[in-house]
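Hi team,

Filling in the usual template for the complex we talked about on Friday. All components are listed, including any nucleic acid strands or ligand strings, so the model treats them as one assembly.

SUBMITTER: L.P.
PURPOSE: interface mapping
COMPONENTS: two
RESIDUES: 806
SEQUENCES:
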Amino acid sequence: MKKAMSLFLMILALFAFSSAQQKDSTKAPDQTATSADEKITNLKGEVDGINESYLATKSTVDKLAKIKISGYTQFQIRAATNYKEATDTTINKAKPGTYLYPVGDFSGGKFSQGVGSVEQLRRARLKVAYETELTTAVLQLDCIPFTYSNAATAVTSVTTYDTTSKKYTTTNSPSNAAYLNGGGVTIKDAYLRFTEPWLKSFSLMGGVFDRPFGFEIHYSSSNRETPERSRTEQTLFPGERDLGLALEMYPGENMGFMQYINFKGGVFTGNGINVETDNARDFMGRLGFSVPLKEIGLGIDGGASGYFGKVTSWNDVADSFAVSSKTFVKATGNYDKTFDRKYYGGDLQLYYSLPVIGGLSLRGEVYTGRQPGYASSTSSPSNNVLNTGSIYSRNFLGFYAWYVQNIDPIKSQLVVKYDSYDPNTDIKVADIDSAKIAGGVSIADLMFNTIGLGWIYHWDENIKFMLYYDIVQPEKVTNAYAAKNASFYPYTLDMKANVLTFRIQYKF
Amino acid sequence: MCVSKKNSDEKIIKGESIMKNKTLRLCLAGLLVAASFMLIAAGGKKTITVKGSDTMVILAQRWAEEYMAKHPDIVVQVTGGGSGVGLSALINGTTDIANSSRPIKNSEVDKLKQRFNALSYETKAAKDGVTLYFNESNPVSELSIDQIKAIYLGEITNWKDVGGEDAKIILYGRENSSGTYVFFRDNVLGGKDYSPLMQSLPGTAAVVNAVSKDKLSIGYGGAAYAKGVKMVKVKKDAESPGYEPTAETIKTNSYPVTRYLFMYTRAKPEGAVKNFIDWTLSDEGQAIVTKVGYFPVK
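RESULT (copied from the run log):
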C-alpha cells in the first residue's frame, strides 16, 4: 500500500514538473531575445566597469613601478690564519694577543687585539630609486651594527693665531659622544641624474656617488667575486664615493660606433662623502670603451682615468714632507698651502665564453701618481675637518690582475687575483736606514702584494656563498738598521697577514 | 658461568651480526635509492626554458609542441612576460633562452658580463612586420610613417587629419617591458616618448582585442596577431606606395617597419639548447613561423 502511494506521489511530481517546463516553453520568442539582450547589456556594463577599475589600478601601479627597491645583506666569518705567529708576543714582550703588525686591514677590517676570527654583518644595504624615462633619484642606505673600527668621530676644528710667533695653529677636538653613534644607518649614495631628451646620451649627476675612476670602484660588492677591492683602490678611494657634480656620456645603440665609447667625469670635494673643507676642487674622470666582438664571442672593455686634485694643509706648525734623493725632505710654513693629489690609471677587461664550462674574464688595472698622505698612512683624506696633520707626499704605483672563470654546470665561479701596492716608489726597502727612519720613512712606505683565491657558489638568483683566501705578503725588510726599529722589526720576520673569508649574501 | 658467558658472547656476536645485517641492509637500501635517483636523473627529461617576448609567445609555443612531439626526452617550457622580462631572466640565470622582439641593450650585456662573464649570443629566429591595427569599420586604409609618428606622439589626435571621420583617435600600445614598445618607439617615433594618452596594455592580444571593439582606436603589434582587426598599409613617406606586411614585402624590405625576432642565449648555444635552436631555424621550424603568421629568416 505504501509502495503504491509513493509511486502515485512520484508520478504526480513528474507531471507537475513537466507542466512547469511546458509553461516556460510557451514564452514568446521576442521575450527571450529581450532577456538575452538585457543580460548581454548587463555583462557589457560589468566588463566596462572592470575595465575602468583596471585602468584606474594600472595608473596607480604604473606610478609605483617607477620606484625600484633593491639591496643586499652580507654575513661573513673571517679568520686570521696566521694569528699565532702574528701575535707571537715573545718577540716584542707585548700583552698577549697583541698583533705585531696589522692583519686584515685591507681584507675586511683590522683584527682587534686577541681576536683571531670574527663573525660580521658586513653589509645590509637598501637602495631606493625613483626612475622616470629621463630622470633618476637614488638613496642608498647602509645599516651596520656599531663597531669601533667603523666609528665616525665628530671632530671640532679650532684655528688660533699666535701673535708672538705670528703663526696659525689648528687643533681638532674629537667629541666622545660621537663614538656612541658610530654604527647604525649611514648614507652610501644620494644623487640625482638628469638625461637630456634629444639624444638621451648625456646625463648630469649631482650628489654622493661612486668616483668616476677606473673599473673596480664601480664594481659593487654584491656582484664582485672578491670580498674586498684591491689595496690600492681602498687606499686611494676609501668609501668609493665622493660628493660632486658629474657629466656622463653613454651613447645609445642607435649612434653607430659612438655607442662603444663612454665618459664620466666631474668636479668633486675630494673628501669622500664629507663636506668641502677648502677652496681646492678635485677633477676626475674616465674615458672608456666597450667593444663586443660577438662573432667570436670576445668582449673588450677598458678605459683611461685621471684625477687632478689638491689637499690643503691648515697647520702652520706641522711640517710637510716630500721625497728627494730617496729621503723625505721637510718644508715649513704650510698654512693654507695645497699639495698635489694626482692619479693616472688604465684598465682593461676581456670577456670570453668557453664551451661547456662557461664565461671567463681577465681584468687588469694600473694606478700611478702622487698621493699626499700622512706619516703612518697613505690613505686619501676622508674627513669633514680641516687637515691639520703633516702632509707626506709620495709617488706610488699599484696594479692588479684578476681572473674569473665561471663553471656554469655547477653554478660556481673560480677566482684568482693578484694585487700589488707600492706606496712610495722613490724609496726602496733596501734604502731604508736610520736616517731615513728618523726623517719620516715608516711602515706605511712598504709595498704589499696579495694573492687571492676564491670559490663562489650561486645557490639561486638571490643567494650566493663565497669562500676566499687572501695571502697577504708585506715587503720583507732586510736592512739591518730597519731591523732594529720596533715598528719595522716584525717585517724582517717574513710574516704573513693571511685572511680566510666565508660569506653568505642575499641580494634582491 | 662459563656457559652463560658463552651464551652472552654468542648473543653479543649475534647482536653484532644483526646490527651488521641492519647496517648492510640500510646501506643497500641507501644505494638502491641513490641508484634510483641516478637512473631517474639519467633517464629524466631535459628541460629547456624559454622566456620573454609576448610577440613570440605563440610562435615559441608552437615550436615547443612540435619539437617535444618529435623529441619525447626534451621538455620545452615557454612563458611570456615581455622581451625585457626574458632578458632579465637570462641575466639572472633563470632561463636558457630569452625571446626578444628587440635587440639586446648594451646595459643588459653589461649585466650579463657581471654575473656570467658572457656577452650573450644572438640568433635571428624569424622576421616580423610591426603591424598597425585598425578597427574593421575604420575607413582609413593607409598611413605614412610620419602620420603614425604624429599620431603616437599625440600631435595628430583626430581621424579627420588622416582622412577619417571627425572623431578623436584612441591610442593603444604595449607596456615598457615589451620589446615591441621599444622597437616601435625607437624606429617609428624616432626615440621620442609616446603620447601620455596612449593606453598601455599587457600583451599584443589585449591590444588587438581592444582595437577590435573600439572603432576609433589604433594599435600596433606583431603581424601574427592581426585577427579580427584591419591591417593598415604603411608608406615610407607621403609619396611612397603603401604596403601590408606580407612575406613578399617583408622579404624585399618594402614594408617600412620590418624587424627580426631574436632568441638570446648567454653564450654560443650547446647541447639540447643548440639542437632546439637549430631545429627552429630548419625548414620545419621556419614553416611553423609562416603558419603562425610571421616570416622566415631565410
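MY TAKE: Residues 161 and 167 of chain A are 6 Å apart (CA to CA). The domain at 71-507 of chain A is CATH 2.40.160.10 (Porin).

Thanks, L.
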